[in-house]
Amino acid sequence: MSSAAEETFKVWAEDNMVYGPIDLPTLIRWVQENRVLAETWVHLPAEDRWEQARALAPLRPYFTSAPAAAPAAGAPAGSDQVSSPELRQFDVFSGLADHELEQFASFGELQAAEPPALVLRQGDPCDAIYFILAGTLRVRLLIGVNREDTTLCRISAGEFFGEVGMFQQSTRTADVMAETPARLLRVTANAFQLLAKETPHLAAPILFAIARTMARRIAEDNQRFYREATSQFLWR
Question: Nearest CA to 109 among 191, 34, 43, 37?
Fold first, then answer.
């Protein structure tokens, strides 16, 4: 059985290219040279899966000197795992088997939020999509010179958000905050690209289902706009 030092690894870099295989000393050197960051995806050949570099025991000491960025919704939920029933709340996962759901969850980061924590802040970069596993979130805007707190909508378990901004690489247009204790699975744009490259058979139905949901929302918005415009015209 090979030791960790004899293993080889692959690295999914920020230029969306996969580099390797490389040995552990080279991987450590890349960390020291800031070519591999804490959130960089690294392939573990022995287990045939991808993990973020911060999760690999041999690399953890090399990230302790740099302050870790605190996630907006609080710390990841430690050793807690995303269950298949939690993901089956979402229509986008209805056609996937349990092992495929587990594989998808491994590309995300589990986060917990207690009210009134901000999950997302208006103006933040749109770099991820969020799946609400439990709880309710409130979407709000602070309007006017008095910063009046205005609720736009509420979203609950079984819903996801952030997909449009993630694909457009834009900024968040409103705050999202926890209204009840919530669990969320955060999947970054980079993780989706890695998923599509390494397991296209898994990524394709998920991305298609997300696109179908986006199209339905756009159609509903168009119908609402048409009804509002028509009613104003008839009134006049």
Answer: 191
